[in-house]
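Ligand: pyridoxal-5'-phosphate. Inputs:
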Amino acid sequence: MGEYLLRCPRCGRPQPPSALDCANDDSLLRTEYVAKRLTLREDLPGLWKFIDWLPVKGPLRGSGEKPVTFRSQVLARELGLSRLYISFSGYWPEREARMATCSFKDLEAPPTVERLMERKEGQALVVASAGNTARAFAQAASAAGLPLVLVVPTSGESRLWTTVPPSESICVVSVKGDYTEAIDLAARLAGEAGFVGEGGARNVARRDGMGVVVLDAALAMGALPDHYFQAVGSGTGGIAAWEASLRLIGDGRFGSSLPRLHLAQNSPCAPLYAAWTGSAAPQGSCPGGMYDDVLYNRKPPYAVPGGVRDALEGTAGTVCAISNGEASLARQLFEEGEGIDILPAAAVAVAALQRAAASGSVKKDDLILLNITGGGVSRVREELEIFTLKSDIEADPSALSSASDKSLVAEIEEILGRRAPR
Ligand SMILES: *Cc1c(COP(=O)(O)O)cnc(C)c1O
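Predicted complex:
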């Protein structure tokens, strides 16, 4: 099991095991595992094979598929690359990929849910999302029977589905407002007694779960890649890839140089690109008109110690901004070449690789890892049963903004309590 210490990368002090922040500064805390050498636990299913480097005591049964890594033939040839590997997070049974909510949020949710269950505090987890994150947490919480509150803008309700019957201990709160208002309401709810937020990029279970992409790939390739390509919104996956690579260097068997991070955003709604290149921050209608709005995050963990900027500086990384047109062509190229549908976000990463190959910023024989962060939705629709989650409560965006108004908390507790006594 993953025995570890939480340490602040800035001040170097150990922190309490469930801390999200350092007591002294705003760094992203990092796990320091007792096992310095990665031993694959073949007896455990899915991503739990990497439990040595996950912050949990045991696996969450019924949840936690892992991505697959394979060497690309067709796309590699199209791009003129000889050593291109693809990490695929999604549903593709022919390649043994069975992440049923079809994105690499399926790597974050199971360790987060398991870690929370192990704390045995009985809190309900609060997640604001109407997309890949919500589906992944709904699926993992259903496996665990963990009380979960999904806070979604009304417009996102139809995107909530799972491939297992959703458990009775999920409460869907739809907010009569936009995504930002849903996030703000979720933050207020998470501050109430009996509720807890998932912590986003600050949660090591999320980051180390995503790190499995690099761990799985390094085992498949026999080495750390020279380059890592991923489409980012918050950039948490980039931080996770960097941290996992540091651990693999510590292991000693996978080389001693860090992969260069190539993070891709969708222009013009590209705050990380703006921050890294010093160009004007996006304004106006974002995320309206984006190729994939999962790639828009208003407050990415960029400048915090241990955040995206440190990850880019530590790896001589870059950020690029991809247009909708480039992404759309790249998606077609990938889907025809590799034979599986991918999420629009993943196409943005393909376009970034295509650009880097054309410009010579990656060389023909470089060892490259392309993170396909989501795909196979059309395969899921063909093969699995889809369960849609229904809204339980309609909330006003201003709910919980005054200390005297706790009626929403009472309503949620009634729903959770009625269904699943805690
Ligand atoms: C969440 C997500 C991303 C971006 O992830 P980061 O948190 O920015 O690393 C990319 N692709 C898909 C499919 C996603 O769901």
